[in-house]
């Protein structure tokens, strides 16, 4: 007599669907965990020390106190203050002219991870994993259904 | 100190004050000079930012070549600058490849972005600001842009540490509408890439001409 026991493929599909579903759900607590460590920095394309010294002198001639002018001592502001996570502390500058400012030097390669960028990547991952779970679940359901029909015919 | 010595000292001090960099417009300090740009990567910062719904792209470039010449009166500037497309970086290698592809900047056909100054004159109200008009060429399409640029003459006492010659710092920011240059953002990436990019430049030019690159044997 034929058995209703799931086949190995059915078990694999079930496992895969559950794993994909777990990924789709678990990325969010991970995201919020990482996001809670976010710090606001202003990213800059930095100048070299010789240009920095010259800029500092030029600023001292006309110390406006404006954030933009202080940032310009250290380099070119790429964008406004933005939330970043997992930042390499060695890239952070607190200008002596205004230590409350937090500048983030653009690394030679790669880029600092923005919270918004992390969100979009994890959103893609979550949606992709959820779709994968749906597909794997549907495949397993089809297989089980066919298997049952076959068993019914055999018995 | 007798009266004559005192007078001479005072006059010299007054002359020194008048010529101090903070008290003159950049044009005065830059009369009839030819400035070479892109001689040092850390003194060549070009940024481009695309702010879209779900992603902000922060791009940078550190390569440029070109010469700007200030006229004898220090009142206008001419010249052109060129940025190699291949030097632009977004922080993700695959995205850089896309940027160089024919759908975007088409680096193979148009290897550089050009900026030719049509006019640049010292602002009458603020000598640190110059008003300019320039022809920007991207992907073979040229458009006139106008704006203001901040020009700072760097005192010659920093010349040695900067590498010789007289130096000037030029900063500007402007927007580029991709569609004006025949670049169409595909609908598939519309939420990730803006149709208008914010450009920032921070350049240091020197009167010391760069040494010609030796050809590898």
3D structure, described in words:
The complex is a heterodimer of chains A (155) and B (217). Chain A has helices spanning 8-35, 49-61, 67-74, 115-154, and strands at 39-46, 75-77, 82-85, 92-93, 103-105, 113-114. Chain A is α+β, with helices and mostly antiparallel strands. Chain A folds into two domains: 10-32 and 119-148; 35-108, no CATH class. In chain A, strands 1, 2, 3, 4, 5 and 6 form a six-stranded mixed beta sheet that branches. The termini of chain A are close together. The model of chain A has no long low-confidence stretch (mean pLDDT 92). Chain B is α+β, with helices and mostly antiparallel strands and 217 residues long. Chain B has one domain (25-206): Lipid/polyisoprenoid-binding, YceI-like (Lipocalin, Beta Barrel), CATH 2.40.128.110. Chain B has helices at 3-19, 26-29, 93-100, 159-162; strands at 34-37, 44-51, 56-61, 65-70, 77-84, 112-122, 129-138, 141-154, 167-177, 196-206. Chain B is globular. Chain B starts with a helix and ends in an 11-residue tail after the last strand. Residues 6-24 of chain B have low confidence and may be disordered. Chains A and B meet through strand 1, helix 2, strand 2 and helix 4 of A and strand 2, strand 3, strand 9 and strand 10 of B.
């Amino acid at each position: 007599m034929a058995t209703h026991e799931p086949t190995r493929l059915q078990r694999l599909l079930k496992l895969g669907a559950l794993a994909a579903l777990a990924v789709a759900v678990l990325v969010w607590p991970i995201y919020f965990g990482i996001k809670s460590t976010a710090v606001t920095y202003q990213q800059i394309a930095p100048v070299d020390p010789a240009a920095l010294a010259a800029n500092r002198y030029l600023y001292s001639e006309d110390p406006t106190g404006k954030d933009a002018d202080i940032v310009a001592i250290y380099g070119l502001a790429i964008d406004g203050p933005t939330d970043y996570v997992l930042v390499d502390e060695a890239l952070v500058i607190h200008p002596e002219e205004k230590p409350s400012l937090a500048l983030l030097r653009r690394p030679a390669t790669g880029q600092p991870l923005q919270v918004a960028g992390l969100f979009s990547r994890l959103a893609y991952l979550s949606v992709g994993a959820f779709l994968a779970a749906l597909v794997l679940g549907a495949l397993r359901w089809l297989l089980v259904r066919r298997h049952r029909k076959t068993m019914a015919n055999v018995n | 100190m007798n009266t004559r010595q005192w007078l001479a000292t005072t006059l010299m001090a007054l002359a020194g004050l008048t010529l101090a960099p903070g008290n003159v417009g950049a044009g005065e300090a830059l009369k009839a000079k030819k400035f070479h740009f892109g001689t040092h990567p850390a003194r060549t910062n070009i940024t481009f930012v695309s702010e879209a719904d779900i992603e902000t792209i922060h791009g940078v470039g550190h390569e440029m070549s070109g010469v700007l010449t200030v006229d004898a009166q220090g009142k206008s500037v001419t010249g052109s600058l060129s940025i190699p497309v291949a030097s632009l970086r977004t922080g993700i290698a695959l995205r850089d490849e896309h940027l160089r592809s024919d759908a975007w900047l088409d680096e193979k056909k148009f290897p550089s972005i050009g900026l030719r100054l049509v006019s640049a004159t010292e602002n009458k109200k603020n000598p640190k600001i110059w008003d300019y008009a320039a022809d920007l060429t991207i992907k073979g399409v040229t458009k006139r842009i106008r704006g203001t640029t901040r020009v700072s003459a760097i005192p010659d006492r920093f010349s040695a540490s900067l590498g010789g010659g007289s130096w000037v710092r030029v900063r500007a920011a402007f927007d580029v509408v991709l569609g004006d240059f025949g670049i169409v953002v595909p609908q598939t990436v519309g939420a990730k890439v803006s149709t208008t990019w914010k450009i920032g430049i921070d350049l240091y030019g020197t009167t010391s001409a760069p040494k010609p690159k030796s050809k590898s044997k």
